[in-house]
Amino acid sequence: MVTPRSASTSPSNDVPDLVDIAHQVWHCPRPWVLRYLLVTIPSVFFAVMVMYPLRPWFRIPLLVRGLDTRSLDQLLEAIEFSTGQIVHGLPLVVTMALIPLGWLLVRVLWVYFEGGVLATYAGDTPLSWREFIDVSWRWFGSLFLLGAIWNVAALLMGVLTIVIGTLAGSLWSPLGTFLWIVGGVAIVMLWLWFSMARSATVVRGERNVFRALRSGARVIRQRPTGVVVLIVVTLALQGALLWASRVGTTVLPYSWWLPALILQQLAAVLAMGVTLARRAGEVRLAVQVFAPEVSDDI
Amino acid sequence: MWKTILSLMAALLAAVPMSSPSTDVSRPARAAQVPPEEVASYVIEADYDSVRHQITASQTVVYRNVTNVPIPDLVFHLYLNAFSSAETLWMREAGPEHRGYGFDPNAPGWIRIDEIRLADGTPLVLTPLDDDETLVRSELPHTVAPGGSVVLQVLFTAQLPYVFARTGWADGGDFVMAGQWFPKLGVWEEVASDAGAWNAYPFRANHEFYADFGSYEVVLTLPVSWRVGATGTLQGEPVEVAGGKLAHRFRADHVIDFAWSASPHFATLERIVDGVRVELLYYPGRRAMARRVMRATEEGLALFEEWYGPYGGGLYPELTVILVPEDAGGAGGMEYPTLYTVGVLAMPGLPACVRFLEAETVHELAHQWFQSMIATNEVEYPWLDEGFAEYSTVRAMRELDGGDAVACAGWSMSYLFNDRWAYRMNPNTPMSGNAWELTHFGVAAYAKPAVALTTVEQMVGDEAMLVFLRAYTERYAFKHPNEADVHAVMTESLGQEIADWFFDELVYGATTLDARVVGLPAGDVKVERLGALCIPVSVELTRRDQTETSFWSCEHPFNESLASLVAAEIDPDATALLDLNLANNGQRRTVDEPAWLRTITGVLQLLQLLFRGGGLW
Question: What is the mean pLDDT of each run of 10 residues along chain A (298 residues)?
Fold first, then answer.
C-alpha cells in the first residue's frame, strides 16, 4: 500500500512549493521516461514514414532553400512541381491516414498510465513497477470516462462559442469578439476543472466521475491562488521552452540537423517535465484540501 | 544581341547584390508638375435621396477643344446603364458577377439625362450608340473650333444599384459609394492631321475608364447626419438646406473623375503625410482594420513619392480613403482621383501577419500616380495602369514594415507569388490589347506586367529601374501616354535592347521560358531552355568542393563540361521570374541528406507536440 503524501503548503499561503515539486518530479523519473517514450516512439516512426517517400525532393535546391529561408514562395513552387517524384514506399497517404489512429492509441495509453503517474506524486513512497501498473489499471476506467466527458463538453462549448460568437458578431462586431473571448475563457476553465478532477479522483480514491468533478471544483474553490499560480507558471514555462526551441533551431544552418535534433528533444523533455510538475502540483493541492480524507486506496 | 546586357549583368552581379531593392535613393526635391490644361470641367449640384438611393442633379459642363481638329458632336458615357438589368452587354460578359459579388436584379442601377441644352438654351438631342445606352451622342449645331469651347447644361437622374462593380448602396441604405455616377464626356483625339474621333466605347465587363483632365466643383446634398468623403477638397463648412439636409461643396482641379462616398456611421482617422492631408473614413467596428490601412497608406505614400515623385504631381493637397463596410465589399478595391476604396480583403479576424489588406491599400494608392496623374487609357491599354500599379505593389510590399504579403510564424510569402502563380496558369497571354478582347484579363493586365517588370528590375538593377520609372512618371504626368510612349522612355532609360525585348516578347508577344536542368541523378546532364523567350541567366555548377558560375546567353547552347557534377542550378538568385518553373532549374546528383534529416527533426517535433496534446494533457 502507498503511504499518502502528507499535506504541505508554502508558509504564507496555499501556493504549492514549486521548487519542491520540481524536485519531486526530478527524483521520480519513471513517469517522465514513460511519457517521453510513449510520445517519441510513434513520432519517430511516423516522421520517418512520412519523409521517406519525399527523399527525391531533397535533390531540388529550390525546396531546400525554401525550407532553409522559410520562404513559402520557393517551398510551394518546389512542391507543386515535384509531386510526381514521390517514392512509393509505404504510400504517403496511408501513412498520413494512420497518424490519427496512432494519436488515438497514444491517447488511450496516456490515460491508462495517468493513474499511476498521479499516484506516484500522491504517495510518499515510490511505487514499484507492479504497483504502478496495478494503480494505472485501477483508475483507467474513471480517468477514461472523465476524459471522454471533457472531450464532449469542450466540443459542445467550442461549437456554441463559434455559433453564438459568429451570430453576435454579424449584428455587432465588438459583441462577437466579446463572446469569443468569453467562450475561450470558459473552455479554459473547463479544462482546468477536469484536470483538477483527475487529480482529486486519485487522491480521494473517488471512482464516481461526478463526485470527482465536485471534488475538482472544491479544490479550485478552496485553493484558487494555488491553482492559478500553478497553471500560469507551468504554461508560461512550456511556452518559453517552445519559443526557445524555435528561436534556437531557426538560427542554426539548415544542414545542422544533429544540433537541431538535440535542441528540440531537450526542449521536449523539459516541456514534459513541466507538464508533470503541473500534475504533481495539482495532486498536492488536492492533498491539501482533502488531507483528512486522503484515501488509503491510492 | 545580348552582349550589352550580359556585360551589364556581370557588372551588376559583381558590384550590387541581387537582394531586396533599397529605397534609400537620394534625389533632389522636385517642384510640382505643370498643371494640365483643363479640358472637361464640371459643376454639379446633386441631391441624394438615401431612401430611394437616387441622385437628382444639375450639371454644367465646359468642354475645351485642345486639338487642331473641329469637334462636330459630343459623346457622353452613361456608365450606370450597364447595371440596369442582368441582360446588358456588361452583365452578359461578366456572368453577372464582379470579383465574386453577384448582381441584385431587384436593385439595379441606371442613369438618365432628363434635359441637355447649350448655354444659350438650345436643346440637344441624344442618340444612343449602343443597345444599353451606356454611350450617347449629340450632334452640335455648330462645331467646336480648335481652341474653342462649348458649355452645356444637363439635368440628370442616377439610380444607384445595390453595391455592385465598384458603385452603389449597402447597409440598408446607410452606405453609398458613388462612382461613374454622372454623364461624363469621352476623350476627343486627333486620329489624323485633319480628322478626329471620340475615344469612347460602350461599357463592357473588363474595361475601366478614360477621361480628360478638368476641374470639378460638386455640391452634394445629403441627410444631416451623413459624413462624406470625396475627390478634392471640402470648401468651407457644409450648409444647411431645406429638407433637413446639408450641402457639402467640393472642389478638385486637374483630375479626370469625381467620386464620393457617404454614411451616417463613418468615423474618421486623419494624418498629415508629407504635407498631404489623408482622411480615412470607416465604420467604427473596423477600427483595427482602419489603423492597418492608414499605416499602409502612410508608408506607401512615402515610398511612392520617393520612387515616382510628389503625390498628384504636387498639385493634390488631400487624399481620401474609404474602408467600405463588410457588406459592401463590391465597392472596395477601386481608385479615383485623390480617393480610393479598400475592403475587398478586409475579412474579419484577418491576422496582422496576413497582409493582403495592406497590399490592396498600396495597390490602390499606386493608382494615384498611374491612373489619376498619368491617366492612360484604361480601355485600350489596361496593363499600363493596372500593371504598373501591381508592380508597384510587389515592390512596396517588400519594403513595408511588418513583412511581405504573408509573414507568419517565421514563414513568409511575397506578394509576387500570387502574380507569378496567376501568370503561370496562362502564360501565353500578351499584355497588349483592348480590355474586352483579353481572354485572360487578370493575367494580361495585372499578373504578367508585375512579373515582367520585376524581371526587368532584377535584370537591370534597382537604380536603373528607378531611373526609368521616374523618367516615365515625370515626363508623362497629366499627359495620357500610350504604349509607344512607354517604349520610348524605356529605350532612353534602359536601352534599346531591353525595351525592344520587353515590348516585342512580352507586351505584344506571348513567348514563354522554362529553363531547366535534366539528366541528374544518373544520366547525362543537360541545361536546356524550353520556349522562345530569351532571358540570359547565370548557371552555377558544383563539382565536389568547387562551385563555379557562368552566364548563359540565348544564342548558344550551354557548352560547359557537365561531367563529374555534384549539382547544377540555373539562375540560383531567381532573377528570371518569368521562368515558368523554378523547381526544375536545379538538381543534385544525390539527396541532400542533412536537409532531409533536418526536415525529419521538424516533423518529429510537430508529431511529438500532437501526441502529447500540445502540452495540455
Answer: 47 73 92 95 95 92 94 93 69 86 93 94 88 94 93 93 88 84 92 93 89 94 92 93 91 94 96 94 92 58
B416 in contact with A, Cβ within 8 Å: yes
What residues of chain A, 208 to 237, have a C-beta less than 8 Å from chain B?
Answer: 235
Strands B239-241, B149-159: pairing is unpaired
Question: What gap in Å lies between CA A71 and CA A75, rounded to an integer?
Answer: 6
Contacts of A236 (CB under 8 A, 6+ apart): none
Query: How large is the ipTM?
Result: 0.90
The verdict on B411 touching A (C-beta cutoff 8 Å) is yes
Can you read off the three cell numbers belonging to residue B60?
A: 454644367
Q: How far is CA B200 from CA A228, B76, B147, B338, B380, in A?
A: 71, 8, 21, 23, 10
CA distance B386 to B470: 17
Task: Record the cell numbers describing residue A285, joined without a space.
Answer: 493541492
Place of cell 520556349: B531
Interface of A with B in 71-100 (CB under 8 A): 71-74, 76-78, 80-82, 99
Most B CBs within 10 Å: which of A59, A86, A105, A194, as the mutation test of the B interface?
A: A59
**How would you label B43-72 residue by residue, b for 16+ Cβ within 10 Å and e otherwise?**
bbbbbbbbeebbbbbbbebbbbbbbebebe
SS3 category, B403:
coil
Please tell me the distance from the alpha carbon of residue A92 to that of residue A98, in angstroms, as a whole number.
10
Residue B291 near residue B250, CB atoms below 8 Å: no
The helices-and-strands tally (H runs, E runs) of chain B is 12, 33
First-to-last CA distance in chain A?
8
Q: How many CB atoms lie within 10 A of CB B244?
A: 9
Phi and psi at B193, nearest 5°, equal -65, -25
Using CB atoms, which residue from B412, B590, B593 is nearest to A71? B412
